[in-house]
Design goal:
The complex is a heterodimer of chains A (823) and B (199). With 823 residues, chain A is of the alpha+beta class. Helices cover 53% and strands 11% of the residues of chain A. Chain B contains nine helices and two strands. The longest helix of chain B has 30 residues.
């Protein structure tokens, strides 16, 4: 049906009139305006109905629609070892997905380039070259490029997945305080400086390309990508100008990149590092004022403003220091020759401002729960205090939007009397929970206080006087109160518990806390802890965590050579399985099973699966990640780089833990990165001077580096402080053997042989001391016995631990390794 | 032709056209058409990365490349975008037609009504393709030429309301009104069965 023009005019008038009115006012209006013309009235009503349905109809431009239809197709697919999870954006040329790196078991960002892109060889080659150059950028303030992946004609960049908000998101809520803006600007300048020194220009710096991680670290993203994916068919080059892009946000379209183009980019002229300086000026201006320096309603107006207009200087807050205003004016010089010429000069100007030095991680909530102080009369409840605090940590750790310092690191301040500020700085947290516990009989009094690190202000405090059996309720209440004060949203409802009732048997609970604490202290404490844990599961056979504790204690004793593996194997594996049965989502249970199957059964495939499961349920379970790094990657598989990467992640999460540091040191040592290994182990020794394992690892590293005198004195100390633990003795014997002090090595071998007549000594260790003393045949006999008895200490170390290298040259040992590696 | 001198050329032609020289328009159209088509094609074949050419920005890319921003007047800018939008519609419709021909009734560029309206029901039977929209726009054009222009600017060229207002030389309020009615009218027409389109 075609309406004549006059009818159209009437329809239009009636439609527009009605549309402007509220729903209930429309009928009266239409009756009036249509004056009995029923056909017109129906027509208008129909059009109004379609108007309601068409709210977003045609709002997405034609070609962008085409894009989004294609973009959906990759979810769930694999590119190389990367399993694509979800589309997280269409930023910086191409779709960006989050993906799981199935080899390294980490989440990365994948920038997937269009298929056709890879089919153009010249373009693809250029892209590869650019990507290689960009991958050399290694700076804490630059989002890393991990690699380039190709499969089925799709090309993808593998990038660091950076968490946190972009500056665009932050500034959308308003201008930033001066100190914070400058602290961010300084890190951006550092990033630019590092890249410019390598001849790499960003070309597309803007608030949307800068993220601040929950830890307060600034990361500049998409460095140089504009050029890498640039067009090649003309002098027109994305390198000159990263495009005027319209991004869809909220209720309308806003100007994207165009607003941050430099005048030379807007004119299509060549660019150099000073283009980034211009963009830097735009970003800093925006952080301070909350609005973009040159953005206008249309792209064309924006470009005109860039070329012709000055930013509105009066929009800067009155408190802006003159040095910063001068800096901005210099960065935003339209004439490239008059602009600040490099990033170091930008930094100099910022550094003149004393307020710019530190960027507190203030936008994301973070907390350290310190070990609670024992206020009981006998002062004998330290293990209980630790346990209570630890369970609060465990309850808070999985919450989204809250960063929780790991237990060992947070507890390292125990009894040291550091002030809040120091603790906050060392752990990089904004709040600290401190508390005390007083127990007498079945009554407990717990007092807690939550303090703001920056000003010492008390955010919350509470005192609980309860019966011991209510301990889980108290912990749950404390965890929820913290979440509430720190404005962290809980995934479940308010009624979902954060701290579960792990056991209803208070005696079992206390035995568990005490036992776990002892096992964590290693050495001679482990068997005592094991007894307590066994009693705990006897009292409450449904106590999942205690079962995992039993398994861990047995495994630790077996791999350190303190007990025969054959005797504990069945119990260790059964206990781990029982723990998982009782709580299938327990990271602790799955980790226990991973270790037990790896060390007792030599089952690497199952170990890997269990480690991964554990980390899936609780990515912050540091113990799991660390053992995965060291036991699995490093010693079972010899995948040294992967092990180091995982160990570093574990340490990131628990930066003050001597044990985690030691494990990273061992990873580096095994991989032959000796300087760093020695440094790391030294830090571990400083962190915990009483840890013999840290000294043992340091001694090994020194010996492998050929620094035998240092190695021997370190290992002698380790032997003494551990009550002459056979681990330390074997290491010491090895060092003596290497410098030709065979008599000393032999004496140590004798020492262990004598001990073996009274107590258990692992044949693995006897093999090593025999080898050190120069008796190869005896060494081989012990090695054979160790494997035949499936000694966990042998299974753990024989493949890749450096001290086995001389043994590995013997055909008899090679035969053993072959048997070990049979599927 | 290198970009610099092309930019010179297009800029001159736009300025002359703005001063009433209609011959300039005749020379401008093929220049602009070629460029838009090349960029759009590369984009549709996905030879070019999505984001940097996210179609919304496509005309802006061409604008940046072919025009000397220092010399643009308000009027010449408006002319550029109005003309580009019309050409973009033509390019996309041609593209859809070719796809249909090569796929014998294939639906590569079919944008279902539901997808285009943002609802998540791609299996819906009520879908129309770009060609049907093109026909509907022709009908709309005979009733209300300005509404048709608004749809070209918004949907085919991806301009926002103020940009469309600039290109048409009217107020943003006018563009909003026209846009709303055009959408309602097209929505009605495209969801009411018309004579079956080919295939």
């Amino acid at each position: 049906m075609t309406l004549p023009r006059e009818a159209w005019a009437r329809l239009k008038e009636a439609f527009e009139g009605a549309r402007a009115l509220a729903l209930d006012a429309r009928p009266a209006y239409l009756a009036e305006v249509c004056k009995g013309d029923e056909a017109l009235r129906r027509e208008v009503e129909l059009l109004l109905a379609h108007n309601d349905q068409a709210a977003s109809f045609l709002e997405t431009p034609a070609m962008q629609l085409d894009d989004s239809l294609v973009a959906k197709s990759l979810e769930g697919q694999c590119i190389g070892p990367y399993q694509i999870a979800t589309l997280i954006g269409t930023g910086g040329m191409g779709e960006v997905y989050s993906a799981r790196d199935t080899k390294l078991n980490r989440i990365v960002a994948l920038k997937v380039l269009p298929d056709q892109f890879a089919l153009n060889p010249a373009r693809s080659a250029r892209f590869t070259r650019e990507a290689q150059l960009l991958a050399t950028l290694n700076h804490p303030n630059i989002g890393a490029i991990y690699g380039l992946e190709e499969s089925h004609g799709a090309q993808a960049l593998v990038l660091e997945l950076v968490e946190g908000e972009t500056l665009a998101e932050q500034v959308a809520r308003g201008p930033l305080p001066l100190a914070r803006a400058l602290a961010i600007a300084r890190q951006i300048a550092d990033a630019l400086d590092a890249a410019h020194k390598k001849g790499i220009i960003h070309r597309d710096l803007k608030p949307a390309n800068v993220k601040v991680t929950p830890d307060g670290v600034v990361k500049v993203l998409d460095f140089g990508l504009a050029k890498a994916v640039g067009d090649d068919d003309s002098t027109w080059d994305l390198g000159h100008s990263p495009m005027a892009i319209l991004g869809k946000t909220g209720d309308g379209m806003i100007l994207g990149t165009a607003a941050y183009m430099s005048p030379e980019q807007a004119r299509g002229n060549p660019v150099d590092k000073r283009t980034d300086i211009w963009a830097f000026g735009c970003v800093l201006y925006e952080l301070l004022t909350g609005r973009a320096a040159f953005a206008r309603e249309t792209v064309a107006d924006t470009l005109a403003a860039i070329v012709e207009r000055d930013p509105e200087w009066t929009a800067l807050p009155p408190a802006t220091p003159p040095t910063i205003i001068r800096l901005l004016r210099h960065c935003l010089e339209k004439e490239i020759a008059r602009r600040v010429n490099d990033a170091p000069n930008v930094r100099l100007a910022i550094d003149e401002e004393p307020s710019s030095n530190r960027l507190p991680a203030e936008h994301a909530a973070s907390i350290a729960v310190l070990a609670f102080t024992d206020m009981s009369a006998a002062r004998d409840q330290a293990w209980f205090c630790d346990g209570v605090a630890e369970e609060i940590i465990n309850a808070l750790a999985p919450l989204k939007g809250l960063r929780v310092a790991a237990r060992t690191s947070a507890f390292s301040f125990k009894g040291k009397g550091d002030d809040l500020r120091t603790i906050g700085r060392k752990l990089n947290v904004t709040t600290v929970l401190d508390g005390s516990v007083r127990r007498s009989g079945d009554r407990v009094r717990i007092t807690v206080q939550l303090n703001d690190v920056a000003d010492g202000f008390q955010l919350w405090s509470e005192r609980y006087d309860r019966e011991l059996k209510d301990i889980f309720d108290v912990q749950d209440e404390i965890a929820k109160a913290i979440a509430d004060r720190l404005r962290v949203t809980l995934a479940g409802g308010r009624d979902d518990r954060l701290v579960g009732q792990a056991t209803t048997n208070m005696e079992a609970y206390q035995l568990y806390l005490k036992g776990r604490g002892l096992v964590d202290r290693r050495g001679a404490n482990v068997p005592i802890g094991l007894d307590l844990l066994r009693k705990a599961v006897e009292l409450d056979p449904g106590y999942s965590l205690a079962w995992a504790g039993v398994s861990d204690a047995l495994t630790v004793m077996a791999y350190s050579g303190a007990a025969a593996g054959a005797q504990s194997k069945a119990e260790a594996i059964a206990a781990a399985k029982r723990s998982i049965e009782l709580d299938p989502t327990s990271a602790t249970g799955h980790t226990a099973l991973a270790c037990a199957t790896l060390l007792y059964e030599n089952n690497r495939a199952m170990a890997r699966q269990e480690f991964e499961r554990a980390l899936e349920f609780s990515p912050n379970y540091g113990m799991g990640r660390m053992w995965y790094a060291l036991f699995y990657f490093q010693w079972a598989r010899g995948e040294f780089e992967l092990g180091i990467t995982e160990a570093r992640r574990a340490l990131d999460n628990d930066p003050l833990s001597a044990y985690v540091m030691t494990n990273l040191g061992l990873c580096l040592f095994t991989a032959g990165q000796l300087d760093e290994a020695i440094q790391t182990c030294r830090r571990a020794v400083q962190q915990d001077p009483e840890s013999f394992v840290a000294r043992w690892a340091l001694g090994h590293s020194l010996a492998l580096a050929g620094r035998f005198d240092d190695a021997i004195s370190t290992l002698e100390a380790a032997a003494e402080m551990s009550g002459r633990h056979s681990l330390a003795i074997t290491a010491l014997a090895g060092a003596f053997g290497q410098v030709g002090k065979l008599a000393e090595a032999h004496a140590l071998h004798r020492e262990l042989m004598d001990r073996a007549t009274r107590d258990y000594v692992s044949p693995t260790h006897l093999a090593l001391t025999a080898e050190a003393a120069g008796d190869r045949d005896e060494a081989m006999a012990f090695a054979r016995r160790a494997w035949d008895e499936r000694e966990p200490s042998f299974i753990l170390w024989a493949r890749h631990f450096p001290q086995y290298r001389t043994l590995q040259t013997d055909p008899r040992f090679v035969a053993i390794l072959r048997e070990m590696n049979e599927p | 032709m290198p970009d610099a001198s092309r930019a010179q050329n297009v800029t001159e032609l736009l300025l002359s056209w703005g001063q009433g020289d209609t011959a300039a328009l005749d020379r401008l159209v093929p220049l602009l058409y070629d460029d838009l088509r090349r960029v759009a094609r590369g984009h549709l074949r996905r030879e070019r990365p999505g984001h940097s050419l996210q179609a919304t920005a496509l005309v802006h890319e061409v604008f940046l490349r072919l025009v000397d921003v220092d010399r643009m007047t308000l009027k010449s800018r408006a002319h550029f975008f109005a003309l580009s939008a019309r050409l973009m519609r033509q390019i996309l419709v041609d593209h859809a037609r070719r796809q249909r021909a090569s796929k014998r009734g294939g639906s590569a560029t079919v944008i279902s009504l539901n997808e285009a309206s943002g609802a998540a029901a791609p299996t819906s039977t009520s879908s129309v393709d770009v060609l049907a929209l093109d026909e509907a726009l022709d009908a709309l054009s005979s009733l209300d030429a300005r509404q048709c222009r608004v749809v070209e600017l918004r949907f085919f060229a991806g301009l926002n309301i103020p940009e469309a207002a600039d290109a048409l030389g009217v107020s943003t309020a006018t563009v909003e009104r026209e846009w709303a009615m055009a959408k309602a009218w097209l929505h009605q027409r495209l969801s009411t069965p018309q004579e079956p389109s080919a295939g």
